[in-house]
Amino acid sequence: MVLPALWPSLQSLVAGTEVVAEAQAAEMVAALHRKNHLVVEGAGAVPVSAAIISKRFRGRKVAAIISGGNIDEPVLSQILSGITSPIKPIL
Question: What residue ranges of the chain have pLDDT lower than 50?
Answer without folding.
Answer: 89-91
